[in-house]
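Propose amino acids for all 108 sites.
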C-alpha cells in the first residue's frame, strides 16, 4: 500500500528503530526527504512569500494532528523546514515516512 494511504500507529518505547537498509527503502517512497544520521528525516520547502509558507505550515499541522505524529517545523519568509522522528523510540519508524508522504502531497 502507498505510504500516503497508511495511518500512523502509536509506537511504544520498546519498538526498534529503523535500520539503515529500511530507511533507504522507505526514502525511495518519499522523494526529496533526507535521512540525517539514520535518526530523523528532513526536508526544506521553498515558497514565494511568508503567507504561502504559513498556509503550508497550517496544512502540515492538520495532518500531524490527524496522524497524532508531530514534526518539528521551522517557518520563515519563503521557507518551511520540517524535521521528524519518532520521539518514543528516539529514531525513525514507518510513521515518519507515512507523515513525510502525506506532507509531500500538500498542494499550495
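Proposal:
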Amino acid at each position: 500500500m502507498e505510504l500516503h494511504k497508511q495511518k500512523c500507529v502509536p509506537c511504544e518505547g520498546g519498538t526498534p528503530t529503523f535500520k539503515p537498509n529500511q530507511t533507504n527503502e522507505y526514502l525511495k517512497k518519499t522523494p526529496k526527504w533526507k535521512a540525517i544520521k539514520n535518526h530523523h528525516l528532513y526536508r526544506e520547502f521553498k515558497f514565494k512569500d511568508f503567507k504561502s509558507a504559513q498556509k503550508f505550515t497550517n496544512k502540515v499541522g492538520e495532518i500531524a494532528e490527524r496522524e497524532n505524529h508531530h514534526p518539528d517545523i521551522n517557518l520563515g519568509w519563503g521557507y518551511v523546514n520540517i524535521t521528524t522522528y519518532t520521539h518514543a523510540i528516539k529514531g525513525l519508524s514507518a510513521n515518519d515516512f507515512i507523515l513525510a508522504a502525506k506532507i509531500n502531497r500538500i498542494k499550495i
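The two ends are 25 Å apart (CA to CA). Residues 18 and 93 are 6 Å apart (CA to CA).
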